[in-house]
Predict the structure.
Amino acid sequence: MGLSAILATAGQSLELFSVGIEVAGQNVANANTPGYVRETVNVVPSLPYEDNGLLIGTGARATGVRQQIDLFLESQIYRANSDLSASRARQAVYSDLETQLNELSDLDLSTALNDFLAALHAVANQPESAPHRQMAIQEGENLARDIRTLSRRVRELRSAQSRKVELLVQEANDLIDQIRNLNSRIVRLEASGLNRSDAGALRTQRYQALNRLSEILSIRATEREGGNVDVFVGNTYLILGGSIQRLEAVRETDRDMGVVNVRLDKTKVNPATGGGELYGVLEGRDTILGGFLDQLDAYAANLIFEFNRIHSSGQGVRGFSTLTSEARVDDTSAALSDAGLDFTPGHGRFELKVTNKASGITKT
């Protein structure tokens, strides 16, 4: 080996060492950077040369700077992000609902019901007591007010969830646009043949965008040869080559109130399925809060029906001199099932007590 060859090999080795130092410095500088992906230098032996029938090595050379990332592990992280975000969204809804129920205080619904029942027991023990009767009326009004207040507050929580849906839709659309733009920049930069290196900074930005998008929606990401990434949700795409689908916020009605639902602008399917913060918010609004409202309405309806059924069999302190029905029956032969009531009517009986004003004797 001549002196010039020795110096060339040494110079190439120093250059490789310098590149390694720069890449290591880049890794150290970004050790605390969120989403940063560690980079390494790809090194291969340099081409040998022939000298007196011998192939003499010429050291090593760098073939590129590549990010060290496991794409399979990254896909599992996306799935875990979706599951965790959905769980956190549901937990937040349960926490808000628990706050409104206020069960650990004396201002909860169960306390109002107990106070109402206690007032009714007092009336049953002393039916002639006007103060007890007035207290029962007051406690009944308090219970009805508390039920209405709780229903209103839960409906306000549902409205707040719909506002979250709109914000998440906007954020998801921004991320979709960002990923598409990064795709084109990465493909263009890496296709220029810059020593077969990754566009590290741009790829890191794309990984960060994909990571956040996976928190909002349950996505799958597939990288094509050339650096382009396709993103799918469910059985359809969000990003496919140069085509994208954005999310649309659609105003609809559910349980007599306006809500915001989500669909894709081209395929019109719901992308919020299987996981993600958006899925958790929608489930919290419609299944958790909506289901609670259904139960609260059923509870109130049953309470009203059972109370009225029992109350209708009682009597006042003073008897009636005249009675007028609230509803008129035009056909006395009509079937009870045609009465249009919210419950199934049945045959019953009632007692008519007549009091003689002169003697005070009551006959049934």
Notes: The helical segments are 3-29, 71-101, 109-125, 130-190, 200-216, 277-311. The chain has six helices and twelve strands.
